[in-house]
Amino acid sequence: MTAPREARHLRDELDFLRSQLLEMAGLAEDLVEMAVAALVANDEEKADAVILGDRELDAMEVEIEDACISLLALHQPVARDLRLITMVMRISNDLERVGDHGVNIAESVRHLDAKPPLHRFPQVEEMARIAQGMLADSLDAFVRRDPELARAVCLRDDRVDGLNDSLFRSLLTHMMEDPRRIGIAMSLILVGRNLERVADLGTNVGEDVYYLVTGTSIKHAQKLGEVGPDHAAGG
Amino acid sequence: MAEQMITRDLKVSFGDHQAVKGVDMEIRPRAVTAIIGPSGCGKTTFLRALNRMHDHTPSARVSGEVLLGDRDIYGDGVDPVELRIRVGMVFQRPNPFPTMSIRDNITFAPKRHGLAKGKALDDLVERVLRQAALWDEVKDRLGASAVGLSGGQQQRLCIARALAVEPRVLLMDEPASALDPTATQRIEDLIYELKKDYTIVIVTHNMQQAARVSDYTAFFYMGLLVEFGETDGLFTNPREERTEAYITGRFG
User: Fold this and answer.
1) ipTM, 2 dp
2) Quick one: which of A77, A111, A217, B39 has the most CB atoms within 10 Å?
3) pTM
């Protein structure tokens, strides 16, 4: 333990926890954005910055997890306080994974260099934009305690999956046309896969926020159309 | 205002029975130290030794040192009455002076010790009642009998009364165990506020309460201090098996 813990009121501790999570979410979003920007501009310096930023994100996750465990042990929270602490733990875990996917994308920048160039694939940037928006909106829903916004986020995942399929198909065509491009195309397929995972994690965060606010789980319910009367709204 | 207390090899015996068996402990100022442990572990005996409450028990013997600041409270020339001005005590059951008004409960000790009079006394009454989060509830009936208050209010009055002599240290022996959850919450909030200015030692049967309100926790068992450390560490990863067994309810 680094410094003596100053016993604080649960309310203050929870406020602090919320702000820590938001800070972490901001960084995770930035890393995804930077990774894709590094990819598009073939910017290795930026890619290295993503890898550094991920270490910070990892440290934040550990800090948040420690804080949550202490709060559970010391305050025996119930009801919405309990939901907040457990969901913050889960969300921070997902955000840490988002950072890892950012690093995977950043690392592919090196592989894409010095190969026969491929023209840009708009799907990659579009997927990144949607995935980032999902993260941003889930956290917005967290701040505003808005279950509808949280649920709407989850519905956007399908669009990212569709873009990923489209990316895969067009890269497949390139590979068949020119086997020298198999390496670079495979790298881009993995980039797509990583972005698709970021969107999945955004969905998880949305589900966690929905549970946090309402106390009801919507996990695995989206596709079954079991969520509320207006579930058809987003497809 | 707050002062630290240090015990060195503190032992307390009643006849043949040694209830506290040589405890070394540093109690930090401006922090809450909780003492937990099963019944008969010596925690209340230890607390009472911190302001010489065993002086009145003929069979009791106390040895070792208890330093308040740098002075041994059992040393020569220490007046126990003076000591109890500096080390206040709040008991399990609220014990306001039953024949006195709310106001007189607070002014009794300061008047007797010549600490305040006149307007200063009025200011004192308001200040300590505010500190004890009771002012708004009683300001219009300061002349009313203290026993007309609810249990929780009576306990906050007792805390206000303890604060009226400007103590350095506040000892609390199960201060919320006779109160309902709402009144308990108010006492806990109050402890949280008071630690900014005082050294607080609280004995409690309620481990959750110790975890919620304290910065440091001491676990006593059979007269020994088994473990003492930051509350966070003690409740998430205790060093001693016996502590772990007790706080997880697997004792004996």
Assistant:
1) 0.70
2) A77
3) 0.80
